[in-house]
Amino acid sequence: MISLERVTKRYAKGAVAVAELSFSVDDGELCVLVGPSGCGKTTTLRMINRLIEPSDGRILIDGVDATSMDPVMLRRGIGYVIQQGGLFPHRRIADNVATVPRLLGWDRSKIERRVGELLELVGLDPDQYGRRYPHELSGGERQRVGVARALGGDPPVLLMDEPFGAVDPVTRSRLQQELLELQRDLSKTIVFVTHDIEEAAMLGDRIVVLSQGGVLEQHDTPAEILGRPATPFVADFVGADRGVRRLGVVTVDEGDLFQPPVVPPEVSMAEARRRAAGLDDRWALVVDDKQRLIGWVDLDPGLDGPVLDHLVEFEVQVPIGTSLRSALGEMLQHDVRWLPVVDGERYLGVLTPNALHAAMRRSVGGTPGLSGNLH
Question: Of the candidates 325, 336, 242, 249, which has an alpha carbon nearest to the alpha carbon of residue 296?
């Protein structure tokens, strides 16, 4: 969808803001530009919609050179979000959201429907918010309106310039989650600027790390950038705690799970021990014939009678695809060393500390070790 080919931006007296920058953003991908102040992130973003013209190189949008397009029509086809949403203070919220549809010549009824849809999409009641002015909204609400306005003409591309940088941490976290949910529903091609590597790792499908002068240091997935920094600059920028941050971008995969003994609920404890014999485990998972997880039992030889008489239910279980950070948080919160993982109602296996470590190694191409055990 978007491709930069050796793009350079020079200013007066030869100052270089961006130096021969090349990278691409696939359809439906959320790509984050990250780096310190003065590294050319915003300049790069603005060159994509020609608010700033490049000095050299090419920017292709869906295979077409952006410089060959009418700049006004180009911008109407690209959503643009900045801090606080960049709303027109003298216009009501509904009028702000309707800006691009009106410029595109949509009829009134279609515009009204679109405004209502978009306000609902970003969690704002059209009847409650449509007639308000920007100064009557909180920072988080203004930011939601900014996203709704950027989506007004249903553009395939969104450019977002530190959109959540001016709100408090709690609101920022909520807006980040809402953006991820919107992206899952809409699959827009998004270029997002931030100086925060944690935000970049949380949101991005891929990250572009820039150093001073718009020099490309690394373009890769969050897991690769946090796990295998390509240059000393990247290693320093992502920080010494990058291993902890990787927990938030690596998800639980079925291949990472340990498989303890499994027994059905209707058998006796003696039969359960017989089925688990040779597996060197002191516990067994109890799973019914539809692969639904019921609980677990201690295989202590002194326990007799039906399995159901000794069944212990789980305090917590997590769905497949949960981030390792969330899974580890559940382990610590509930003081357990293993965590059942399910796909809907279907039991898949358990996550152990050793399995979690293996998943971290797998995320950067390492050789997984033993998945661990329940002990």
Answer: 336
The structure tokens listed for 64 are 């077409």
Q: From CA 338, how far away is CA 364, in angstroms rounded? A: 23
Is 27 in contact with 189 (CB distance < 8 Å)?
A: yes
99-134 confidence digits (pLDDT tens): 999 998 999 999 999 999 999 988 899 999 999 999
**pLDDT class of 145 with cuts at 50, 70, 90:** very high
Mean pLDDT in residue range 43-66: 94
Nearest to 220 by CA among 201, 248, 194: 201
All structural domains of the chain, each given as residue ranges with its CATH number in brackets, are 2-246 (3.40.50.300), 254-363 (3.10.580.10)
> Pairing relation of β-strands 157-161 and 215-220?
unpaired
Question: Is the confidence at residue 60, as pLDDT, over 90?
Answer: yes
3-state SS assignment for residue 50: coil
Tokens at 117, concatenated:
């849809």
Lookup: tokens for 74: 């180009």
Please provide the distance, in angstroms rounded to a whole number, between the alpha carbons at the two ends of the chain.
50
Whether the predicted pLDDT of 202 surpasses 50: yes
Rounded distance, CA 265 to CA 214, Å? Answer: 62
Q: How confident is the model at residue 370 (pLDDT cuts 50, 70, 90)?
A: very low
Exposure letters 209-243 (e unless 16+ CB within 10 A, then b): bbbeebbbbbbbbbbbbbbbbeeebbbebbeeebe
| Residue 368: pLDDT over 90 | no
pLDDT exceeding 90 applies to what percent of the chain? 63
Structure tokens at 7: 């793009």
DSSP code of residue 258: B
Tally of residues, the chain: 375
